[in-house]
């Protein structure tokens, strides 16, 4: 057994052990019954190789003191400790790695470190560009909130929270899936670009893909239910209240058009469109007529002022939709007798 441990010890010093072997070694060395001098020949090699690289850190010195205490407790009074003194420097060098009893114990306990969270909230009419710790880029839309950790752990999940709208350009990392939580919905990728629309007060959730592949799932009572795998040009529209969804195609250039002040609406009801226009243009819109609730529009507005947008809606409705803009209060009143 001791011969095997000595061989294992030598491999550890050379950096050739795996986690299981290190566990066996550390548990053996942690036992006071094994704090004798059978490792002197191994330490001799460590002394020769490491004599110029002594570690004087607090952890090493404290660890060395504990080993001396163990040795002194086990040595007969008449027995000299001189052979061990020769290797004191070697023990200090390797203390935290090979005889670091406390360091090893800490690795067996769950990490207690807390990763700080960072949040960014945008106002109506505002959009910002953010760079995450992994170099992924996020364009955060108006009236939205993004929360992310101050750093991502390599090999772990890159989890963030979105309330609102954002376009993501995710840095590819096959060992660390990128997951966006939006209410009861979850979007997972490795490296791609996509847009999420997930305002908490709205009744719809959508994901549209520009590049790569995206998996969209619903979190139902703690269980994930995969809804769809999306590829470029695909968009999922999920109705939160009805808990049903549709998947359709759209131009990839329209996925993140809002970043450049181009807003595309496809078969959208007037109330939902007005909610989006409120956020984009930082105005308050009052819809005074229920007769307009079922009006649906297909429209794209590129670099238009809100007054131009309202005029185009007036024309598209067959002039049944009427509006009034109060520039002082930034309020738009909308009424009418329905659409053509």
UniProtKB/TrEMBL annotation:
Domain Protein FecR C-terminal: 263-330
Top-level lineage group: Bacteria
Chain segments annotated as transmembrane: 84-104
InterPro entries xref list: FecR, FecR_C, Ferrdict_sens_TM
Family matches, as PANTHER family: PERIPLASMIC SIGNAL SENSOR AND SIGMA FACTOR ACTIVATOR FECR-RELATED, PROTEIN FECR
Alphabetized UniProt keyword annotations: Membrane, Transmembrane, Transmembrane helix
UniProt source species: Pedobacter kyonggii
Residue ranges constituting the FecR protein domain according to the UniProt record: 121-215
Name of the protein in its database record: DUF4974 domain-containing protein
Gene3D superfamilies xrefs: 2.60.120.1440, 3.55.50.30
GO MF annotation terms: sigma factor antagonist activity
